[in-house]
What we know:
Order of helices and strands: HEEEEEHEEEEEEEHEEEEEHEEEE
Radius of gyration: 22 Å
Number of helices: 4
Structural class: alpha+beta
Largest sheet: 8 strands, antiparallel
Number of domains: 1
Distance between the termini: 79 Å
Shape: globular
Amino acid sequence: MSKPLLQKPLPPNANSVAVCVLALCTLCVLTLSSCATTQQQAPQSDAPPAKSATGASYIPERFDWQPICAGADYAVHEARNPSVRYHCVKINLNAATIAITAYPASKADFIAGAEEASHTFIGKRTADFAKESGATIALNGAPFSGNASSVFSLLTSKRKTIGTHILQQQELGNPTSRYGALVLQQHEHGFYASIIDQQTEALLTNATFAFGGFWTILRNDETLSFAAIRTARTACGIADNGTTLYLLAVEGKRKSVGLSYAECAAIFKALHCDCAMEFDGGGSTELCINGKSVISYRVTRKNGVSWGFTFKDNIFIDH
């Protein structure tokens, strides 16, 4: 009888090494697959249209607005079908005490020695930005990449903005005509907001501030068609001829499945916005009021861009 073949014994630490390699690969896949900054759904003409605001169960008959301060209000809403939780902020852009803050704030925030055109900087959590800047309202903004072309560079804290990022007429980002942007023009009484569908030099010429995002989802009260994918969202909408800005943060974990672009557009329509756009979403979604996140779970991602508003005489009611 022949002797059974024996397997060659593994080195003492081989099992632990294999486990570590497997864990690292899993972490990379989960991190990169959930990152909304590297890939978003492109417009699709065959996607189902959004429900009307009247019949959508995730849109309340009336938003319960609570004051943040003179010029800003906050509302949170939870629905069961779909199971979703989202937050809205309403901002009067003509409020006497309003000011805009953002990160990166200037070229001084870029990594020393980096090429001028790269605009590479160290990312930070939006909640950390809110505390450090003293922002009354803060949220995440444009999508971003790592400091290199490899997707693995996203595992570091180095960031490069994908899209425009204009502060006081100075471009600190990397405009791309593929995506839209929120443009804020300053005047003697505050700001006038508009949404552009493409980040071109001509459309950004008169911007005092501009924050890039993904695509326009509502234009002239008409919902644009996209793939019907539900996830966490960060978005904005404009009403009252550019003098009222609405911010939206949709949660995408725990009991909240998130919303699609069309469903976000339906919320903005219910808020009487005539245009709206999406910022970076997924694991990047964050909204903070007075330095405190209103998201029900901890957001750990170090975003590329965070921005928001400061107000004097803040009277926020902590809910």
